[in-house]
Amino acid sequence: MTEQLPELRDTWSEAVPPRRTNGDAIRAGLGFILSRQQGRCWQDLNLPSGEGDVRLTACVLARLADLPLHYITPRLQQQMDQALDWLLQARFPNGGWGSGFGEDDAETTAWAVLALRGHRRAPAPSGALELLRCCRRLDGGFAARPADSLDADSCLKSTPEITALALRALGEADPAGQGFLSSYLALASSRPAISLLVCSEILNWGRGLAAPSLLDHVAQCAALAVPTGATEQALLLHCLLRLRLKKAWPLAAELRARQAENGSWPMRERPRSFSLPQLELEDRRVLATATAVSALAMAEFQPGLYFGSDLPVPQRLPAF
To answer: Percentage of the chain surpassing pLDDT 90?
Structure first.
């Protein structure tokens, strides 16, 4: 029995990979993202003919805009520049962007505006901002397309995620839109993934744009959120860092622990009965990885609060 112990110990050490540091996890994630770039963009394999490539590429670029400069290698800069050039060329004549149906939409346009602004490429085209304003609805929220759109019948309803994105892209104080989002967040506990996306985008608005009452709703949603997948964990980490809450520290360690050996994070946990080919999941893995990398990189702007060790905080000695 004693002779087998060293062999068992060696097998265990080989089965469990060493834990990555925060910087190692970010670099591994960036390596995965770069390896999945096809041509000058990232492809959405769930839609035919590359209809979703514009939105996915804009989302990834917007997330990568959060990176500190020391992670921007020459190769990464080159591939981001190529993707930004491609994104500019994919713009419709009226100034907006779209991911399908042959016309532009608010969500894709907002992500494209944020990507170009984040990389200091160009000011937002006036046509893109006008498109976003045309997607306003009477309840104060924003829908996917303008009311006179060819596909308006299926896109008339305001949605909170598009509203939060549109208001961030517009960069304007908007009481009506904030009222719509406050009403949604008050009842958002049944849809944690969407509420976390909404909260993280609200916390990305410019300083002073979000009303204190709306920020209170955001803080309450972040406190109650129970993320089930890597993407939700990354969005919650983003919120906790923005709110400067210490719960961000153990959550970041848990998020790093979910990273796969190839540097990626899955979009969500895969059910046992799930039979979708792995190829069709790659684009979702790219987006999840970009979201996780962005959240972990944000932690480095707040040194000393959360990172430096994965060990629990030592207990205080009793006073005598």
So the answer is: 57
